[in-house]
């Protein structure tokens, strides 16, 4: 019985490790893979939103995300957050470095893609495409799902 319990634990841990990695999916057969991208719903008069995802760089060299664009916003910028004396501030950056062989996560209160001057509110259950550009000149179309604030 103890052996069965150990086997079940090992199997569960293996599945958990696989599941954590499984959200980084290949795009266009390249060595840079984008995970499931998401944005949160916005209020009717809210003009800004943000996109988050994981991106894995399987190359043996660093690459950078240098730009992003989408039809749902007039302006799109790469942004990050920092803490200074207990105050959090958000500001644009020129790029996000994707270290060789590493996964970089864009997340709330961290690096993210800022959507400004939204043309329409982002609604739960809907989606849109985000074009991400690397310093290599490669462009990737990343589907973004809009989630409720409770997800």
What are its keywords?
single chain; 151 residues; mainly beta; Immunoglobulin-like; twelve-stranded mixed sheet; 1 helix; 14% helix; globular; disordered N terminus
What's the arrangement of secondary structure elements?
Elements: H1 2-22, E1 24-26, E2 32-35, E3 37-40, E4 48-57, E5 63-69, E6 73-84, E7 87-92, E8 96-98, E9 103-106, E10 112-118, E11 127-134, E12 139-147
Parallel strand pairs: 3-12
Antiparallel strand pairs: 1-2, 2-4, 3-4, 4-9, 4-10, 5-8, 5-11, 6-7, 6-10, 11-12
Give a short summary of the structure.
The protein has 151 residues and is mainly β. Helix content is 14%, strand content 51%.
Overview of the structural elements:
Helices cover 14% and strands 51% of the residues. Strands 1, 2, 3, 4, 5, 6, 7, 8, 9, 10, 11 and 12 form a twelve-stranded mixed beta sheet that branches. A hairpin with a 5-residue loop joins strand 1 and strand 2.
């Amino acid at each position: 019985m103890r052996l069965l319990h150990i086997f079940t634990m090992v199997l569960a841990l293996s599945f958990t490790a696989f599941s954590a990695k499984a959200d980084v999916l290949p795009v266009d057969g390249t060595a840079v893979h984008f995970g499931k991208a998401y944005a949160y719903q916005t209020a009717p008069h809210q003009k800004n939103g943000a996109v988050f995802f994981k991106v894995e760089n399987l190359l043996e060299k660093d690459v950078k995300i240098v730009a992003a664009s989408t039809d749902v916003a007039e302006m799109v910028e790469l942004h990050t957050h920092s803490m200074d004396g207990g105050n959090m501030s958000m500001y644009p950056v020129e790029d996000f470095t994707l270290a060789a062989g590493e996964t970089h996560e864009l997340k709330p209160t961290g690096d993210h893609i800022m959507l400004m001057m939204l043309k329409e509110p982002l609604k739960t259950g809907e989606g849109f495409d985000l074009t991400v550009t690397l310093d290599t000149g490669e462009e990737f179309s990343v589907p973004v799902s809009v989630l409720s604030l409770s997800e």
